[in-house]
Amino acid sequence: MTQVSSSNETSQQLYSRACAVMPGGVSSPVRAYQSVGGQPFFIASGSGCHVQTEDGDQYLDFIGSWGPLILGHAHPAVTTAVQEAVALGTSFGAPCIPETELAEKICAMSPVLDKVRFVNSGTEATMSALRLARAATGRDGFIKFDGCYHGHADSFLVKAGSGLATFGESSSSGVPEACSSLTGVLPLDDEAALEEWFAANGDQTAAVFVEGIPANCGLLPQRKEWWKKLRDITRAHGTLLVVDEVITGFRIAPGGFCGLEGIDADLVTYGKVIGGGLPVGAYGGRKELMDMISPDGGVYQAGTLSGNPLCMAAGIAALEAVEKVDGWQRLEELGRHWEALLAPLIEREKAAGSPLTLTRCGSLFWLSFDANNAPRSYEAIPASGADRYGRFFHELLQRGIMVAPSAYEVGFLNLAMNEEILDAAAKTFGEALEASR
Ligand SMILES: Cc1ncc(COP(=O)(O)O)c(C=O)c1O
Prior knowledge:
Layout: H1 9-21, E1 43-47, E2 50-53, E3 58-61, H2 76-86, H3 97-109, E4 115-119, H4 122-137, E5 141-145, H5 163-167, H6 177-180, E6 183-186, H7 191-201, E7 205-211, H8 224-236, E8 240-244, H9 256-261, E9 267-270, E10 281-285, H10 287-290, H11 309-324, H12 327-351, E11 356-361, E12 364-369, H13 385-398, E13 401-402, E14 411-412, H14 419-436
Parallel strand pairs: 3-13, 5-6, 5-7, 7-8, 8-9
Antiparallel strand pairs: 1-2, 2-3, 4-10, 9-10, 11-12, 12-14
Helix pairs in contact: 2-11, 3-11, 7-8, 12-14, 13-14
Bound molecules: pyridoxal-5'-phosphate.
Pyridoxal-5'-phosphate is lined by residues 66, 121-123, 126, 149-151, 162, 211, 216, 244, 246-247, 271, 281.
């Protein structure tokens, strides 16, 4: 891995300029590096699995725009599709063939989708799915799990992960009590908590929202028995199970987490991968539920730019390019390789008295510092690991590798990576671990 040589002076100047006109100089909080210290780099371009900064340095990128870039940056199939689409007009506010094509494609790939509605972000997808669940059940309350992030709509900003996990906040200011009081929060990995909640409140609970693989507060895959309990108990109480696949959808498997694990969700939410790197979200599920959406039904939800041909073309091209190379299988292979490379480093850390665990699900991975066993809930994550992570993060940066600027965010492998690149990256991870101890 190359040593980064520049002083980052250009990025620093650009950041000061940005801070004068944007809160924290960023458009999304975690980008500001607050939990790891230092200042963010300005990215000039991306190609494959690398990004180039405005300072002229190249980094191996494990962030991948936080999930959408399953093919890496500027994949030729996606850029060509976008170039062709843009020349025909970016948005018409009227039906166009690409939106039907993407809808057909993802309905065919996902076992839980009869119909789908496109929106512009994961946040819009979960917000709209909640409205639909409330309408379908005639109930207002719902539950989510501690550490799960479902975007930034008011109702979900209660004990959320992602940037909020970084800040150690359990909610956001500006959310009315009347709104958050309808959000119940339970710990993951805890069947007894589910039973207790449903015994007391089951008949007032419209929905349970859960990430397919919780990946916004570390990576916290849940046990099969837990999923079975969740499905059984929601069904018994007429509560909808909404699986948020904004990260896992079309990344972890062609049919997402629900397809992989046979989870019979009532509704699912998507984003990230289905936009090929452009802003798209979607929610969908069984026909009788989706037929409640306006104009077929009374649940209003709309969007000026929703389903625009540009984003749809990017999504179609990305999914086709992944299919062409059996990308899901390839990512699993790469993931296994990465896991095998990190295993001896983890053993070495343990021997040096610094517990460390790796959790990996396909192309998602997370290193948890100070943890002796892979955590399965927010409560099980040692808070003490964050300091070491900050040092590790900067040691990696100096050696030309970008990982998420937060101890609670996962790493993403992509199809532009290969064994050789990962071999070199693992060597660098080893150096950074040693230097940050
Ligand atoms: C599981 C999950 N749901 C919803 C969202 C919100 O998506 P967006 O940032 O596109 O609004 C995210 C974003 O990271 C997510 O990880």
